[in-house]
């Protein structure tokens, strides 16, 4: 029996889970279903797979490749959103006199930016738990993914 090294490929279904998880923006249940796991157990399978060290490494590897390929960073996403937020929209009218923005379909662009940010793993992960003595503990893991800033 040989031990897998980090460069060994994942078994096909786990690789499919990774691919679907990254493509769908981080929904583990849907990724598990798309990878062929039973819909009845997809929620627990997805959670289990996310805790697997090799799966987590493969997810980060794919996300890093996406960030590099599309030059995705916190700063770039914020610049794009600011450009949309402060843009002067040119309004025009269709042939029936109804007004519409002629330049850009902003809701679609914002959705695309959100999707790219999720695919690149740029959003925070939050967890909250209660200790035995009733204290609530909140943890936020901020993924810097692709940002040139280092704190």
Order of helices and strands: HHHHHEEHEE
Distance between the termini: 43 Å
Q: Label the structural class.
A: alpha+beta
* Rg of Cα set: 20 Å
Describe this structure as you would to a colleague.
By secondary structure, the chain is of the alpha+beta class. It has helices spanning 12-23, 28-34, 42-51, 53-69, 74-85, 106-119, and strands at 91-93, 99-101, 125-130, 136-141. The chain contains 6 helices and 4 strands, in the order αααααββαββ. The strands form 2 sheets. The chain has a two-stranded antiparallel sheet with strand order 1-2.
Fill in the keyword field for this structure.
single chain; 151 residues; alpha+beta; Arc Repressor Mutant, subunit A; 2 domains; two-stranded antiparallel ribbon; two-stranded antiparallel sheet; 48% helix; 12% strand; disordered N terminus; disordered C terminus
Topology:
Layout: H1 12-23, H2 28-34, H3 42-51, H4 53-69, H5 74-85, E1 91-93, E2 99-101, H6 106-119, E3 125-130, E4 136-141
Antiparallel strand pairs: 1-2, 3-4
Helix pairs in contact: 1-2, 1-4, 2-3, 5-6
Give a short summary of the structure.
The protein has 151 residues and is an alpha+beta fold.
């Amino acid at each position: 029996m040989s031990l897998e090294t980090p460069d060994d490929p994942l078994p096909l279904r786990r690789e499919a889970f990774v691919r679907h998880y990254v493509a769908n923006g981080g929904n583990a249940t849907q990724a598990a279903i798309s990878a062929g796991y039973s819909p009845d157990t997809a929620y627990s399978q997805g959670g289990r797979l996310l805790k697997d060290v090799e799966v987590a490494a493969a997810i980060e590897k794919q996300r890093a490749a996406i960030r590099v390929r599309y030059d995705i960073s916190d700063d770039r996403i914020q610049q794009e959103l600011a450009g949309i937020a402060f843009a002067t929209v040119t309004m025009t009218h269709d042939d029936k006199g109804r007004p519409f923005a002629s330049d850009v379909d902003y809701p679609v662009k914002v959705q695309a930016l959100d999707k790219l940010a999720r695919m690149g793993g740029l959003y925070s992960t939050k967890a909250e738990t209660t200790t035995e003595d009733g204290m609530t503990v909140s943890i936020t893991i901020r993924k810097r993914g692709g940002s040139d800033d280092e704190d």
